[in-house]
Write a structure and sequence with these properties.
The chain is an alpha/beta fold. The protein contains 12 helices and 5 strands. It has a 5-stranded parallel beta sheet.
Length: about 300
Amino acid sequence: MAGVAVVDAAGASPCAPANASSPSEEDSVPLVALNYSVRRRLGLFLNPRAPVASDWTALAEQLGYEYLEIKHFEGKADPTESLLADWQKRCPGGATVGRLLGLLRLLGRRDVLADLGTSIEEDCKKYLRRKQQEEAERPLQVPAVDSSISRSSELQGITTRDDPLGQTVEKFDAFICYCPNDIHFVQEMIQELEQTEHRLKLCVFDRDVLPGSCVWSITSELIETRCRKMVVVISDDYLDSEACDFQTKFALSLNPGARLKRLIPVKCKSMKKDFPSILRFITVCDYTNPCTKKWFWMRLAKSLLLP
């Protein structure tokens, strides 16, 4: 197989690299890339004890295994496979196809390389193609949104009452997720929950957040670390809002199955569209129901006051 480095591995650590000065493509491919068929055929070559050809015990010695460890493998049905499996566990980063091939060449087992070289090369190509495909399909994530734990000055001084020097941050009882078309209902919510005996502190984006920073970074920071709960104001307009969709899904990701009762859906208007499916399993506060409207603000306030 082209590009395989010859290794002077006598007495080397099992995790030592094959050839640090001129690495080949196979040096980056872990041993797990080899399929069952190749491993079985490798055992057919190395398991038989022969006085002339180097067998699996010589390979174990080159990998740095001691006498008692080799005797342990000797009792296994397939000593070669047991050796390779143990090598993978010991050195997940050092047990590579390139190093195995280099050791086989060092041991003079060119018969193994000639017979298995094509199959091993194909396994390596399959592994590398699969890794490239996984990298290509991996979703892009804005680092600042991956976790809203403050990492930079961007998340200092984001609300009107934050300390400009970042020594203290403003905290809230609830983050209000709403569409701009529902701002009149949010204003009524402010009157009923902040300016009455409930004395709750709500985070209303258009009122409390200072302009100038990334919207996604700010909202994720507020929802995760600064607000105990989140109220989702549901209407037909909510269903068309990308910002509301992001905020709701982010909050749900922090509280799978609503176990902590952090997210409270509030239906503020009669709807022509279907209620959002991701919130159907959570109890709703329905402002549109005339039979329960008398208790609406009291129920919502008590939910937000829960620890």
